[in-house]
Here is the input.
Amino acid sequence: MKDRVNRVVLIGTGAVGSSYAFALLNQGITEELVLIDLNKEKSEGDAMDLNHGMAFAPSSMRIWFGDYSDCKDADLIVICAGAAQKPGETRLDLVEKNARIFKGIVDQIMESGFDGIFLVATNPVDILTYAVWKYSGLPKERVIGSGTILDTARFRFSLGEYFDIDTRNVHAYIIGEHGDTELPVWSHADIANRPISEWVAYDKKYKQEDLDKLFINVRDAAYHIIEKKGATFYGIAMGLVRLTKAILQNENSVLTVSAYLSGEYGQKDIYVGVPAVVNRNGIRGVVELELTNDEKQQFDHSVSVLKKFVTSVFE
Here is the structure.
């Protein structure tokens, strides 16, 4: 009989956190889910509401409203707490506000004796993932940010629409900051093992200028969604569940997460969105793509923007 079960602790049951909890229940990824939020009434209500759907879930899950002492036995802590991006705000505008909030959260988690993996979703995600790594003292492999997982999903979806191909058969990455300086890796984008550049070269109905516009729409998608409905939460919730599954089921999946670089891509001491192998121990390793000169310059620029903000918070 297995007496050790997987426990996920969710910090922050706002729009993103509660969407993640709902998606997690629907996919039956973990055995235990603990909800923690400053608004105790809200997280207690969420726990009740989720439990009432248990009869329709694919597998049993124990869900409860808890506190930081529950973090001690957690395998994975997912942080969705913090100030949300408002219309007109960039993700980087949130830096100082959320860094202060995170210090208090991470201190309380580590006081519990937690020794698992952190998954950070709050924006600006690359900088806050770096903050969690600094505040927690855990190895870099066990602190992961959602990075460009959602941007990559948006990119694949949009390319699938453009070429009329199932998004799951489109292979393409967005890397860099989860934000305004991110970039598409066109040099490694393909459908059915055929580079996107070939699809464009051999069929006149496809145009590079269309693809350039497509990327701009992917990059700015959050602004459009926030303008229309106030926040983005379903897409990122699905991305977080995908990461949770990769971690708890030891999948060794390649996903574009915010990972710590120790010389990969010529960069050090920064968390930034790159393809990485994710398993039960966190990040097994960063996948280093061979970038074109233009892509390398764009990536270096993205990192330099992030480093400026990291310096402002930690020095």
